[in-house]
Amino acid sequence: MMDRYFVNQLTPGSKVNEVFLLCNAQLREYAKGRFLSLELGDRTGRIGAVMWDGAEQVYQSIKVGDLVRVNGRVGSYNSKPQLTINFIEKVDQETLADLSDFLPETKKDKEAMLAGISEIINSVKTPHLNSLLRLFFEDTDFLKQFKGIPAAKKWHHSYRGGLMEHTLTVVTICNRIADLYPIDKDLLLTGALLHDIGKIEEFSTGTVTDYSDEGRLIGHTVLGDEMVREKIAQIPDFPSETALRLRHMLISHHGEYEFQAPKKPKTPEACLLHFVDNLDAQVTGFLQEIDKAKANGKSWTDYVSVIERYLYAGSDGVYVENTYS
Hints:
CATH topology of the largest domain: Hypothetical protein af1432
Helix content: 40-55%
Number of helices: 11
Mean pLDDT: 89
Number of domains: 2
Radius of gyration: 22 Å
Strand content: 15-25%
Shape: elongated
Structural class: alpha+beta
């Protein structure tokens, strides 16, 4: 694709004639009728946009997930850049050779991450657990999905490849601390590698990540448990006690009922997995928000609703691009 202007390059006064991903679209009332309130995005971020004329007709011609070409000018609203649109139309995705400009993606090397996961699998010496892991991670279709989806819709690792990145970090931390405790290390590592596999079915991915019907009605913890049970059934004489403990790790890794855990952790391996999983999710979420604030020269982030607070980005105003996303 030819050079383009990205969202993070748009400043008040900029004229815009560019293709963006339509992330949100709403018709809203004002004194003279209705206007169109939009959110446009690409791999660098999102920007709010408004269209005053012909809003209802345009609203019927576009939908969230479309790529749209917009013509307009950037202004400012509530101290943030906002695009006022003169013209907008849907773009045929098939005319674009590469969608990577529009979809946030991990900055880490996917093949290197996969090699790290393979190394951990090779370290699991318990035969039945090693066989279970290979049934998943040597499956081409599974790997394709696992490598491509995010770990969450918004808060942490919310980009393509995010699930693999999050999984590798969780299992790496577990591998480093397991020897501090008298636990079943192989079981811990297996649970860490498989704890979020249900997200493959939980998310409906495309140009916009959203929940599938199964994701909303069942959730990734139960979906992951079902996937593991299916694979275990293919392994002769898989120990029932091991299967029970592993399944418990998967369905309890969210820790609390209020966070949609069907069960609270009741084994040391499940306890460790829960806290390590939450550690990586929270720290990465913090870093993502702070990174966005620093990129905009701010000392504080915007209000982060998921954790109900602002985060301190530092007073030096120095922006250093991280490699976690």
